[in-house]
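3.2 Worked example (two chains)
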Amino acid sequence: MGLLNRLGDPYNAEGVILGTMEQILNWGRAKSDWFMSFGLACCAIEFMAVNASHFDFMRFGTIPRPSPRQSDFMIVSGTVTMKMAERVKRLYEQMPDPKYVMSMGSCANAGGPYWEHGYHVLKGVDRIIPVDVYVPGCPPRPEALLEGMIMLQSMIRKEEIFKKRDKIKAEDEAKDIKAV
């Protein structure tokens, strides 16, 4: 009886971990993220520092993937030009669901120093794809990117995947009824 009362706090059950299936799946998804890096400018250099041994980005369970079809989230770092925007969107569309995006640096977040006079610069990557986590800075410090990763993992851990599937199923049924 005492263990059942602790379902609200599954990680504090005196050596026994209790939780729902959704919590266990989300815990596993949050701790084994595969990412695709889309480095476009100087923020990509700072991203290399995060992957080096001093900051060790992989300690969060993140593994770089070369293909969008194998990636859980994309890190867009640097200045997104109008020419590259189409490619960023195409790569995002090729990623399997659920997919997440981390925007790294002032240029990816809002156009950076080029936003006012740069006719060729996209005024933020969120104009073409949805962004889940923004990492500020020009370029951002490696610690800021690590904090962004912690935020993304927290968001994944709290996601309601089964309710989302039920909602998508209901929307599909509504479309089928409209089609008839």
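3.2.1 Second chain
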Amino acid sequence: MLTIEGVTKRFGDRQVLHDVTFDVGRGRLTGFVGGNGAGKTTTMRILLGVLDADDGSVAIDGSRIGPADRRRFGYMPEERGLYPKMRVAEQVTYLARLHGVDRRTATDRTTRLLERLELTGHADDEVEKLSLGNQQRVQVAAALVHDPEALVLDEPFSGLDPMAVDVVLGVLREAAARGVPVLFSSHQLDVVERLCDDVVVIADGRIRAAGPQDDLRRQAGPPAWELLVDGDVAWLRDVPGVTVRDFDGGYAVFEASDAVAQTVLQRAVSTGTVGSFAPRVPRLSEVFREVVR
């Protein structure tokens, strides 16, 4: 497990991180979300040792991380860190060798990763001649080729089309299935919602929410329900204990306790055909807006 505890950071008189604390579990995909300037990249650079924290600590499995430990990390910066004139396979192999991987193993891993990321046909191409999306996939390969014990990825899905997102997503899931803690930042909340086990929300350098995605979504605001009937549900506004959020003919979203919701269901059944009735779990975008406002 990666543990970031009490991390603070100042640049001159400006404090950009305030007591940042969260965990990235082994075998868990953790999405790190926040607006521009929220503190995501600074936190990740401290985790990787690119920046020093003014206070706080970073540990893996309870042991404070040092320079040697960080060599076992896979890191993908938001700004591409590739050599534009090098050929794809040559470059990925070279980066594995820099991490101490022997030549044969580095070559084998490169071949497998390029195949998995659907880049085999570009193995002999210079990086600068690839599309931005394919360059992004090469960057993912570079982060994975040395078989890291932890993955830290800054905006790994930026510039990828939906098909490429699915390919990269599959590779990250495979890494997590091997017990690797995976932390990645993203502005694409729909991708985070689809992929992540856990979510960390940061705003103004402070952690606003952290934990399993399902728990955060359940905790976001009062219980809500969706009702669809064959008819009109205008009567719903007059039920004591109900707050109507959305209403359109026979469809409504409303807030109510479990007991009041059951009363609503009984009335709906008695007045017509019920098409559907279910709790409404907030989207991650709703959770995000709620905790950062």
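3.3 Remarks
The two ends are 30 Å apart (CA to CA).
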